[in-house]
Design the sequence.
């Protein structure tokens, strides 16, 4: 559910201060602000978005505007499904 139009999008103030005076480069800007909305000013920057354990690099493109930073940094890691089918698939690969 999105924020109301009256309130506007959530933008982390500290994050906006970090990107205000610099140009997009290869340096990574570390952030814990997963709920911050991606704005057009962020295009070209690379953010290190924290997922609870470490920082995942996210390079912002035009397609990402309007989404949240946390959407591009998954917090869980898929290993595999279990059960008989998975065992059969593993045997088939070997």
Sequence:
């Amino acid at each position: 559910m999105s924020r109301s139009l009256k309130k506007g999008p959530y933008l982390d103030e500290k994050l906006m201060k970090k990107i205000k005076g610099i140009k997009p480069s290869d340096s990574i800007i570390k952030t814990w602000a997963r709920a911050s909305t991606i704005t057009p000013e962020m295009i070209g920057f690379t953010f290190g978005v924290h997922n609870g354990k470490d920082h995942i690099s996210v390079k912002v493109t035009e397609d990402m505007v309007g989404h949240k930073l946390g959407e591009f940094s998954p917090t869980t890691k898929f290993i595999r499904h279990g059960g008989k089918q998975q065992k059969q698939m593993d045997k088939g690969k070997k």
About this structure: The longest strand covers residues 46-50.
